[in-house]
Amino acid sequence: MISIEELQRIADAPLHSWLGTLFVSVVVVLVVTVVHRLGARIVKRIAQPYPLMSVILRYIDKPSLVVLALLALEFLWLQADDGMSFVRGMRTAAAVGSIVSLTWLLVRLAAGVGDAIIQAHPIDTADNLHARRIHTQAKVLVRTVMVLIVIIGTGAALMTFPNVRQGGASLLASAGVAGLVAGIAARPVLGNLIAGLQIALTQPIRLDDVVVIQGEWGRIEEITGSFVSVRLWDQRR
Prior knowledge:
Elements: H1 4-12, H2 18-47, H3 51-78, H4 87-119, H5 129-158, H6 162-173, H7 177-202, E1 210-213, E2 216-223, E3 228-232
Antiparallel strand pairs: 1-2, 2-3
Helix pairs in contact: 2-3, 3-4, 4-5, 5-7
């Protein structure tokens, strides 16, 4: 049982004990959730006349809530007493969680923008050449942006750990061999990104183009930096 004196001490300085910190953390998450829900309803109502904005908001609804909650917890745990056990680990976990959730939010934002652009240019029309060009550019560019966001987010999350940060600093301080190895290892990824950008900008092929492969015709179904998917006349790919 917790004595009245203990409860009074926790109430006077809630962030100096694990019980008080846990209670405040739960309250903060609940407040952030309520505020986010109210704000989301207001913003969605404002965006109702704009269908494309509604698409983007639908993509970022859950990630934005997670980002706000983790940022609030990170700020809260920074104010907690340094003498409590595991507090540094909780701070690191909150920092990593904030970076991961922010990465998720940016990826979903990019996907939402791409989907909104695609919905604004339907291809179920007689003359859909311009729309197919937009679809190709949007899908390839959005996929490239998402890969870059994930790479940067992963690097930022790893840099929150002191050992990784020190190792990264020593790698940067040491000369050429490590950089050369990293560059060689990254060539396939960079090559795929560059190939995707080249396809998006020069457009030698577009989505829904009709092509003939080994005497059989089909339509281009998907374009990435590493492969092109063609749906043949008999639904083979």
